[in-house]
Amino acid sequence: MDLSDMSSSQLATSPPPRTAIDYNSSFEESPAKRVKYSHELTKSFDEKLSQTVILVLRNNEEVVVVRSLLSSYSTYFRVLFSSDFRDSKSSSHRIRLVSAPDLHLLLTIPRAFEQGIKPNINIQRAVEILEPAAFLQMSIALDYITDVISENVSHENIIKIFRLALLYYTPLALRVWRTMIRQFQTMFNTNVYLTLKENELIGLLTDKHLNLKSEDERKVITNWIDHNSHLQTDRIVQFAQRNFSRRPQPDSTQYEVIRNRQPMTAIVSFGGWANRGVAQKIEVFNTRCDRWQTCSFNYDVPNIRRAYHGIDIVDDKLIVFGGFNGFQHFQTTVLFDLATKEWKNGTNMHDKRCYVTATKVKDSHGRQLIYACGGMNGISRLKSAEMYDYQQDLWTEIANMSHLRSDGAVITIDNKVVAIGGFDGRHVHLGGESYDPIVDQWHPLSSNMRTRRTGCTAVSIMNNVCMVIGGFNGIKRLDTAEIYDMREGLWHPVSVMHTARSNFSACPMDYSIYVAGGFDGQSTTKETERLDLRNRKWQALPDMAEAKSALRIVTLSDHSFLDELFNVPEDDGVVTTW
Hints:
Helix 7 runs parallel beside helix 9 (170-182) and helix 8 (158-168) runs antiparallel to helix 9. By secondary structure, the protein is of the alpha+beta class. It has three domains: 3-179, Potassium Channel Kv1.1, Chain A, CATH 3.30.710.10; 183-252, no CATH class; 265-565, Neuraminidase, CATH 2.120.10.80. 22% of the residues lie in helices and 24% in strands. It comes from Caenorhabditis tropicalis.
């Protein structure tokens, strides 16, 4: 049932239909949506005017609505009812642009938020009510419409929606434009971009965040000109003639491009153990040129100068916990806000944890929880585990694992915490176990790995599948990897890496698994590689600037903090006018 399925006669009195509401306790409201109705808004006319007003809408539909309700949700009506216009005191108003179902839905949206519940409309309906919401200046409804459209827009309809948003609501247009920048490679691959206007295409090509491969830049313009040959294209031709060149940044040394661009997604390396102690450099992998770059990270770097630590990103917070710096085993937690660029101390863990492994799991309320398992406290290996709730800044102990595990792999499979491999001080483990939060117990996996592994790393491939890579079997460093499918409970071999390694880090990005650093049996290595999951082949990548093991790498996608990491300057040489 859609929110607009109620009749217009119910507008003034009926609550939102319960069957149309998505009860989701994890839904986070924007500040605008937390605004509560206040009678203070209407004190100036409550005593002078009738409590209700008749609205004559499209097709001469008449509805009776509470005057204070309209004034609360609509700037249009608030100004109308509280001003000295001739029509302000009238008991009837004609609004031909709005239909009764549209008005009902626009009133229902803020009422739902006031009750702490989330409306549920699809993108088609959101687009339909954009114009009346903008006309009536209903800010809460407009914010919600903007969220729905921005989260569900696709490359097929994005150009039409962008132009519509330009007419009615600039904040939506800005968000859709940002989405267009993110999806431009797909728009190019599917030729959807060919319907762009000349000025729109030039605007996109001058944006440093445009998601477009360097080798495709010339094709974008030549294909667009061929498709739009019947149109006047002098400007785009001159734009190309003036701006195509080989730029000094590494992403354009092979191809002539319009400007230097910043990747939408990147891998960032934090901490680790280098030849002379804790690694000093933070590095970022530039996917546009397949190179590692040293970052100018000027935000109290000592907080993340650790090795054998845990690290994850939750709600725009980089959370660092446990580890070792050559002198002490850490029990502390520090948080870096990627938006405000500020550090703060979090609650300490219950145990000191070096060689700690951790994973992130979403609970039934949508909260991201970090599970830290095993490790070493400086004296003994651990079987204890604990859970961190960032919102409460609280570490909570959970049931102990069945075995002591340090240097194992911990991963999320089917939204469950799974601990695999590791070392208990005497033996390298062959098996793994999964945690059941309902009964607070660990249960052994249905089968063991094909190889004993400690110092290994695991990554999720799909909801039910993970891959465990490399490690040490007690005799030698491993270049092998194997896949575990929770649904069948079996392990399957995968092609071997170019470099055998243990105590390294790995993370997935863009249908590939990236592996960096580690110890190859002879020395700490700076070598990196990636596994293309589509053809199941490993590809060697350029080395990191600094050889290190026990590092942690994370994926950062479509985030403003990438501006800080890459520091790509604005290109003043781009010519857009002549």
